[in-house]
Design brief:
With about 140 residues, the chain is an alpha+beta fold. The chain contains 7 helices and 4 strands, in the order βαβααβαααβα. Bound molecules: adenosine-3',5'-cyclic-monophosphate.
């Protein structure tokens, strides 16, 4: 069955259009898309799993620096497929092991690595709700 993952095109990427083209070319359906500037609080919450890492404050600075493109990508096995499309976190490693991947092509360094993707389906559901909200039940408009 199709699965959803949360993808982020991070601030300052000069390659948003190419990344969107690659997403289409790889057969992901873009179920939701919005450009958002994260507040510090939102970025800290979004990356709370990394709170203890030495690079956490740099990561938050980076993610708040400009608009992020937030996407819900839908495909069979979307979480794993999107991680494969991104390649390893560090572009130096990506260029060695996955030269066609988005990070090999577009990341600047291990911090400014162009794209993000949820690491598992549980995180995906949680981050999609956090970014896009819980749409919930759609109530038909009977007033008119
Ligand atoms: P992402 O996959 O979004 O998840 C956590 C982010 O932290 C990662 O991409 C990078 O932007 C950043 N990051 C991970 N490891 C390092 C590191 N060693 N130094 C600096 N930033 C890092």
């Amino acid at each position: 069955p199709p699965e959803d993952t949360l993808a982020v095109i991070k601030p300052d990427t000069q390659h948003k259009e190419e990344i969107l083209e690659e997403i289409q070319a790889q057969g992901f359906t873009i179920s939701q898309l919005k450009d958002t500037i994260l507040s510090r609080e939102m970025a800290e919450e979004f990356y709370k799993e990394h709170r203890e890492k030495p690079f956490f404050s740099q990561l938050v600075d980076y993610m708040c620096r400009g608009p992020c493109t937030m996407l819900v990508l839908t495909k069979e096995n979307a979480v794993q497929e999107w991680r494969a499309a991104m390649g390893p976190t560090d572009p130096d490693q990506a260029r060695l092991t996955a030269p066609e991947s988005l990070r090999a092509r577009f990341a600047k360094d291990v911090l400014e690595n162009a794209v993000h993707g949820s690491s598992n389906t549980e995180h995906a559901d949680q981050k999609i709700k956090f970014i896009f909200g819980d749409i919930g039940e759609i109530i038909p408009d009977t007033a008119s």
